[in-house]
């Protein structure tokens, strides 16, 4: 849960909490964007347990994804899929 | 050098290693405090490619592993209560407690659910007003902003059947505790890039100055690690002790201040027990008094939990960096990722699991020792 996974914002919804949809290499999740107020559709963010924490560029996102894919179970665990 | 060809940029990896060899004149011990970094170091064999004398010590960088046994036992006890829906990140389910794990509670009919984010736990509470929904709020600074927001959001929207079992830990006090240990051998640290993306690195500056240790904020890609190690060795060789940032692509000095504000509104700093290490002052987070109504530990008053580690498990020494998984008699034999006896074998971020996934052989069967 600690590693953080990068994805691309595909939708932003402003409500009680700033929420959005983030695409993680084909898997979509609802993500809280309250901590990245300036990140917008098309931007890449690193998401920790459903919260975007930092904004990164596309190349950085790809690198981090490659490392996560090499750790057994890491992607599934970061996306909350039952181990 | 078979490993090097697997790098994204083997040529750059070779250059970094050559520079490291040219820079190193003496032995140095460097600790990484991030389970993702441990995994990359072991899997890519970086620890074995480094110049002789540069030793990587694997620190307590796995949030699953350092969650104290007492908290696991409390979680197991609360999850077994009738009327409770117990929610958790998936990697906590198989962490062995004294008498069993959360998965066993689930198998016995307990309502234990894996959630991807604490906000899902708040939603489950809203949808089940007649049930008590408890969320296991564990982790380092990377998950604290999410858990803080979940409680603040539940409070703001009046979801009163929601509570959190909090066992948050903080990295800088752990580094200080390691440095205060008279037996400490660590001379430089790689700080976890993602922790610093949240918190920045101002907290590390007084540590670097006071203990005269270089601390380099580092990512967890193989090339990041090589560069972070090189930056640390350069400081050590020239007698500098500063905080430097290798991971400038994602980390700024001040971190994410919006996230830090939420953490400060929901949590206060407290003493925390680290599994295998013991109590470390000011090393954890607990709810602020105004939010004590959301504290599952208070709501369910689970006192009198008796805890005991598996007798064979030497995870304490592993988390302190004084032993390797291969030093454990159970490693790879009675303890595997499928049958974990201790927490470091459960999570992919644990040192024992990282060794096992990389195929490191148990001591008794390895030839080079
Ligand atoms: S190999 Fe298993 S029993 Fe040995 S220290 Fe690691 S987790 Fe504990």
TrEMBL record, chain A:
The protein's name in its UniProt record: Hydrogenase expression/formation protein HypC
Family annotation (Pfam families): HupF_HypC
Top-rank taxon, per record: Bacteria
Gene Ontology MF terms in the entry: carbon dioxide binding; iron ion binding
A biological process term (GO) from this entry: protein maturation
Protein family: Belongs to the HupF/HypC family.
Organism whose genome encodes this protein: Amycolatopsis sacchari
Signal sequence coordinates: none
PANTHER family named among the record's database cross-references: HYDROGENASE MATURATION FACTOR HYBG
InterPro entries associated with the record: Hydgase_assmbl_chp_CS, Hydrogenase_HupF/HypC
SUPFAM superfamilies, sorted: HupF/HypC-like
From TrEMBL, chain B:
Keywords on record: Iron, Metal-binding
A single GO molecular function term of this UniProt record: 4 iron, 4 sulfur cluster binding
Gene3D superfamilies, per database record: 6.10.20.100, HypD, alpha/beta domain 1 (3.40.50.11750)
GO biological-process terms attached to the record: protein maturation
Secretion signal span: none
UniProt keyword annotation of Translocase present: no
Family statement drawn from the similarity comment of this UniProt entry: Belongs to the HypD family.
Name this polypeptide is given: Hydrogenase expression/formation protein HypD
């Amino acid at each position: 849960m600690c590693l953080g996974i990068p994805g691309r914002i595909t939708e932003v919804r402003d409500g009680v909490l700033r929420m959005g949809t983030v695409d993680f290499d084909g898997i979509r999740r609802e993500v809280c964007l309250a901590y990245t107020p300036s990140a917008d559709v098309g931007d890449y963010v690193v998401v920790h347990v459903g919260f975007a924490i930092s904004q990164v560029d596309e190349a950085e996102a790809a690198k981090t994804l490659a490392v996560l894919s090499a750790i057994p179970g890491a992607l599934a665990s970061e996306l909350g899929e039952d181990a | 050098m078979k490993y090097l060809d697997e790098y994204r940029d083997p040529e750059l990896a070779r250059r970094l290693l050559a520079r490291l060899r040219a820079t190193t004149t003496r032995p140095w011990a460097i600790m990484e405090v991030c389970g993702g970094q441990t995994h990359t170091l072991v899997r890519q064999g970086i620890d074995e490619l480094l110049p002789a004398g540069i030793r990587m010590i694997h620190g307590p960088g796995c949030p699953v592993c350092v969650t104290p046994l007492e908290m696991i036992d409390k979680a197991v006890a609360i999850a077994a209560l009738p009327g409770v829906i117990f929610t958790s990140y998936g990697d906590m389910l198989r962490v062995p407690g004294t008498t069993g794990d959360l998965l066993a509670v689930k198998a016995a009919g307990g309502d234990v659910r894996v959630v991807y984010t604490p906000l899902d736990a708040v939603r489950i509470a809203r949808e089940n007003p007649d049930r008590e929904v408890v969320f296991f709020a564990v982790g380092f600074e990377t998950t604290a902003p999410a858990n803080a927001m979940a409680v603040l959001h539940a409070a703001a929207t009046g979801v009163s059947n929601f509570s959190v079992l909090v066992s948050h830990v903080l990295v800088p006090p752990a580094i200080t505790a390691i440095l205060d240990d008279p037996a400490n051998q660590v001379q430089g640290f790689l700080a976890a890039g993602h922790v610093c993306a949240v918190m920045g690195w101002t907290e590390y500056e007084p540590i670097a100055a006071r203990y005269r240790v270089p601390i380099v904020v580092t990512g967890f890609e193989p090339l990041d690690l090589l560069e972070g190690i090189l930056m640390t060795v350069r400081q050590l060789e020239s007698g500098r002790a500063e905080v430097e940032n290798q991971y400038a692509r994602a980390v700024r000095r001040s971190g994410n201040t919006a996230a830090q504000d939420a953490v400060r509104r929901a949590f206060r700093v407290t003493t925390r027990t680290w599994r295998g290490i013991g109590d470390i002052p000011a090393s954890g987070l607990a709810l602020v008094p105004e939010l004590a109504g959301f504290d599952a530990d208070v709501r369910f008053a689970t006192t009198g939990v008796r805890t005991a580690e598996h007798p064979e498990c030497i995870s304490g020494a592993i988390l302190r960096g004084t032993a390797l998984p291969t030093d454990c008699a159970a490693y790879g034999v009675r303890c595997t990722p499928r049958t974990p006896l201790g927490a470091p074998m459960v999570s992919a971020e644990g040192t024992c699991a990282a060794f096992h996934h990389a195929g490191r052989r148990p001591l008794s069967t390895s030839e080079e020792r």
